[in-house]
Every structure is written in C-alpha cells, then in structure tokens.
C-alpha cells in the first residue's frame, strides 16, 4: 500500500491570532510545506552529524581544519558575489526582536542595518512568530506605528533614513510546534525564512533592496550548503532572480571557526559576510570540550574578552578569510544598555564600547553590532575614523594574520580563573533571563546589559562545567550542585523582596529557577537550553 501524499499545506495548530490570515495565507502555507518536505530530512541528517562530530571531539580532545576541503582553502581565485548596494556599507548594525516598537526604533536608529531577530532575541511564542512577520510586512508597506500606554507615539522616518533589514531565522535545532506538515513539526528556521521570503522578496526588490538573512548556530559547511540549496529552490519557486538572497553567517560555534572558507564557498553566490559572535561561541566551546579536562575550563564570562588570545585568533582569522573572499567581516555586540539615572555608569561603559569598536575597526572589520540606539553614534564614530567615505575596508587583506588550529582552542592561555562572584552572576542572570523568556521576551535588560538566549546558554554551561571540573574558587568554596542550589534559593528570595510578593507570584520565577537548575546540574548536558524551555513556553 503506497504512503499517503503529503499535505499541500502546512497545518496551523494554534488558536487564531489577530490578522494572522495576512501572514498564514494558503499560498504561504503551501510554500512552507514544500520547503519542509524537500529539506527537513537533510536537516535531520545534519543534526545527527553534529552529534557524531561532538563524539569525535570528546574522543580526541581537539579540532583541526578539514583535510578533505584543503583545496577550497588553498584556491586563491574564488570570491563571493559582490555586495548589493544596500549591504555595501554596514558600519553599524543594531540588533533586536521584531515586536512593533522595536521594529520602528531599529529602523529609525541611524544604524545601516537592523538584524531583525526571530532567534536568540525573540522568545518563539506563536504570537511573536506571526506578529513579528506581520510587523515587517507593515513596515515595508509603511503602515506601522506604535503608541505607548503613556501616549508616546512612534512612526517611521523617511525611507532613505531607514536601516536595511537582515532577518535572522531560528537555528536548525528548533521546531515550530504550531505548524505541521505531514506528521511532523516544521523546523522553525524554515518557518521564519519561508514566511519572510514569501511575503517580502518581491516587495524588497521593488524598493531597491532584497531579502537578506543572518544564519545562526551554523556548525559546518554542509549546513551552509543546505541553506544555499534552500535559497536556490526558493528563488526559482517564486520567480525571484538567482543571487537575490544574501546571507551573513554567524561564526558562533567553534566547529564553524575551522570551516570559514568552506562556509563562504558553499554560499558564494548568496554570501555577503561572516559575523564574530561571543557568548554563543564560548557556549559552543564549553559544549564541545566539556569533558576535555582543565585546559578547557573557562573563567567568568565577562573575563573572556575579545582580546583573549584564542578570541583574537578567531576574530583575526575571520577578517582575513572574509576579505580574501570579498566578503564583509562584521564584529561583535556592544550589549550595554544606558542608564537614565546614572551618568557615571554610562560614562565608564561608553568608554569601554568606544575602545571595543576602535579595536574592531582597526583590526579590519567592516562593521559591528550594538544593542541600543544610544550606542549607534559611538560605534559609527569608530568606523568613520577608519573608513572615512569608504563603504568598507575589504581591500585590507590582513595577510599578516597566520592562525593555527591549536590557537583557536588555546583556552588554557587565559590567566583569569572562575570566581565565586562569577558563579553567583551566572545563577542570577540565568534565572532572570529564563523567567522573562517564559513570558515571551527574548531580549532582556539585566544589570545594564541586553541579554538574549546566548547569555543563558553560556551561564548555565559555565555552571555545569565548573561543577563537573571540580573548580575551587578564590574563597575556598568548591563548585557543587549544593552550592548552586543555595545560591539559586537566595536569588529567588532576593527577587521576591525586590519586586514584591504579588509581582513575584504573577511571574514564572519558580519555573525559571527549576529549569536553570535542571540544565545546569543534570549529569547529561542538554544540547540547547531552549529545547526544554520551549516545552514550557505558553
């Protein structure tokens, strides 16, 4: 008996939302179903390959550049496609979720690019997924506005003053449980990419831009190849010229750092650059080398700056690789959130942001990220000083850079050590972030920093690593599950006193506490915090 034919439409399994029919049209759902049936099986194979590679790292305790792709790295002649005009100057990029207020503020921010985030800065509630798409459609049609409960109104500036949108879909590991095709949930990456491309590709072309994407959590060039095949199919299917899509890949996993040339090669007709992340990159190092001994134990997350030797190796290799191939190199995040009450805190933080952006511009990066509009002029000044009227510095080839495989994982060169204050901060930030995420907030200001899911991942990973490595802190205390439980209980008490019993009871504090302890203390390390967290998301 033959198998039943797949449904021509992805099926919505959720309570209806206001205006969802403008996003979830039959033709859009048919496109998602087609993407799912063609590409989800390969996604599954690549997720299995991740597990195999992780097992190999656990066995060998090392990583190296791939011998089978040496010919791609050694071929000096190939280049990625030239950047479209809208992506040629990327000196400042602002990041944030696609809620209505952020959409307006980010587009108006003065940044050249807005990373419109369906990934780590957005908790994937069904409302966020659908209304985030709707907000972008409304923005492109200039029918978006927002008024706060206090009466403050927000509206778009003239088109020529708006940032160029680069949308970031979810990573490959997350499914979207509210959309099914056949008997399976559609991967969130295909939902976010598919809906955005389907509704906006032609509209963006008509405006002189195009559908541009950031690709997160990529672990290998084979995953980049999958994205490239998706792009080719999607453009053909909707009659969009090949090469219209442009993708910037986040090199935020340690395995991808060894395949930067190969990733650009696979996407070369659609590639526009690579980005150097920080928290996810450190999270990936802990995840992959979690049982590789004391040489891979990271200190407090804030002690691992971009000037650490192994981070310098990573970022300088990224600049050299990008410029050799004609691609943009985009730097990391300035996550500081200015205080309206404490100008002294701001002054110190602004000085650090300025130094960080000066370093990136002088190292050869073509642009960098900020989390808040107030940081846009600071980052712009750093890049203006180096670029002047030039849109980028891709002509600066950084041929002086020579990075070995061992330098990329030389964590042992760090002088900083884990501290008791670092453990407490990891618990505090982890609980506070997860609680907000469970309320549908993915970008959360905590202790004057804009935190996202990568923050929670590195926090819980460091707790796990320090306990399993038997770390002893400077005060003589040993990292144990019992110590973490004590700190977590103290944090819950402090939060209750800080916000009051009524607000505490209305939140998700106990759930957040319990989930952090689960993913930080379980013997089996969870691949992603967001997988068990998604099961709790309303």
Please specify the SSE layout and strand pairing.
Elements: E1 11-12, H1 26-60, H2 70-74, E2 92-97, H3 100-107, E3 113-117, H4 126-140, E4 145-147, E5 153-155, E6 164-168, E7 175-181, E8 184-187, H5 188-206, E9 212-215, H6 221-238, E10 246-251, H7 254-257, H8 260-266, E11 271-276, H9 279-288, H10 309-324, E12 328-334, H11 343-363, E13 367-370, H12 376-387, H13 405-408, H14 420-438, E14 444-446, E15 449-451, H15 453-469, H16 481-499, H17 501-506, H18 509-521, H19 530-536
Report what the structure shows.
By secondary structure, the chain is of the alpha/beta class. It is 47% helix and 13% strand. The chain has 19 helices and 15 strands. The strands form 4 sheets. Strands 6-3-2-13-12-11-10-9 form an 8-stranded parallel beta sheet. The chain has a 3-stranded antiparallel beta sheet with strand order 1-7-8. The protein has a two-stranded antiparallel sheet with strand order 4-5. The longest helix is centred in the N-terminal third of the chain and has 35 residues.
Keyword list:
alpha/beta, three-stranded antiparallel β-sheet, 47% helix
């Amino acid at each position: 008996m033959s198998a039943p034919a797949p449904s021509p439409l992805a099926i919505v399994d959720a309570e209806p939302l206001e205006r969802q029919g403008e996003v979830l049209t039959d033709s859009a759902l048919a496109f998602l179903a087609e993407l799912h049936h063609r590409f989800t099986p390969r996604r599954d194979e690549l997720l299995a390959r991740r597990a195999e590679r992780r097992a190999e790292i656990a066995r060998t305790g090392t990583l190296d550049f791939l011998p089978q792709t040496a010919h791609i790295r050694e071929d000096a002649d190939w280049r990625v496609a030239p950047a479209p005009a809208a992506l040629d100057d990327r000196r400042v990029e602002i990041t944030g979720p696609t809620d209505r207020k952020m959409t307006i503020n980010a587009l108006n921010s003065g940044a050249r690019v807005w990373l419109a985030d369906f990934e780590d800065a957005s908790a994937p509630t069904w409302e966020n997924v659908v209304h985030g798409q709707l907000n972008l459609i409304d923005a492109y049609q200039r029918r978006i506005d927002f008024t706060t409960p206090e009466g403050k109104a927000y509206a778009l500036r003239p088109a020529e003053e708006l940032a160029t949108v680069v949308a970031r879909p979810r990573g490959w590991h997350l499914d979207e449980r509210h959309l099914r095709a056949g008997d399976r949930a559609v991967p969130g990456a295909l939902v976010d990419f598919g809906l955005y491309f389907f509704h906006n590709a032609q509209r963006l072309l008509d405006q002189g831009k195009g559908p541009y994407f950031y690709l997160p959590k990529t672990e290998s060039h084979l995953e980049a190849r999958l994205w490239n095949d998706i792009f080719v199919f999607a453009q053909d299917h909707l009659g969009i010229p090949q090469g219209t899509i442009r993708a910037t890949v986040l090199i935020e996993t340690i395995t991808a750092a060894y395949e930067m040339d190969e990733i650009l090669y696979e996407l070369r007709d659609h590639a526009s650059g690579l980005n150097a992340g920080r928290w996810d990159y450190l999270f990936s190092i802990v995840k992959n080398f979690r049982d590789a001994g004391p040489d891979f134990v990271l200190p407090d997350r804030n002690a691992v700056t971009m000037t650490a030797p192994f981070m310098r190796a990573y970022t300088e290799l990224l600049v050299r690789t990008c410029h050799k191939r004609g691609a943009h190199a985009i730097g990391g995040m300035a996550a500081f959130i200015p205080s309206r009450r404490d100008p002294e805190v701001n002054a110190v933080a602004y000085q650090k942001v300025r130094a960080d952006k000066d370093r990136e511009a002088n190292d050869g990066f073509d642009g960098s990220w900020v989390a808040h509009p107030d940081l846009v002029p600071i980052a712009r000044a750093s890049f203006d000083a180096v670029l002047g009227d030039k849109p980028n510095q891709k002509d600066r080839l950084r041929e002086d850079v020579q990075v070995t495989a061992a330098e990329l994982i030389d964590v042992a060169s760090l002088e900083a050590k884990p501290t008791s204050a670092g453990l407490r901060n990891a618990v505090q930030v982890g609980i506070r972030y997860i609680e907000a995420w469970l309320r549908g907030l993915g970008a959360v200001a905590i202790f004057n920093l804009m935190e996202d899911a990568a923050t929670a991942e590195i926090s819980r990973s460091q707790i796990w690593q320090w306990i399993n490595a038997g770390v002893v802190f400077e005060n003589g205390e040993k990292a144990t599950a019992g110590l973490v439980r004590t700190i977590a209980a103290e944090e819950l008490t402090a939060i209750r006193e800080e916000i009051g019993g009524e607000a505490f009871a209305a939140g998700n504090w106990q759930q957040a506490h319990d989930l952090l302890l689960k993913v930080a203390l379980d013997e089996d390390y969870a691949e992603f915090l967001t997988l068990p967290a998604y099961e709790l998301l309303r």
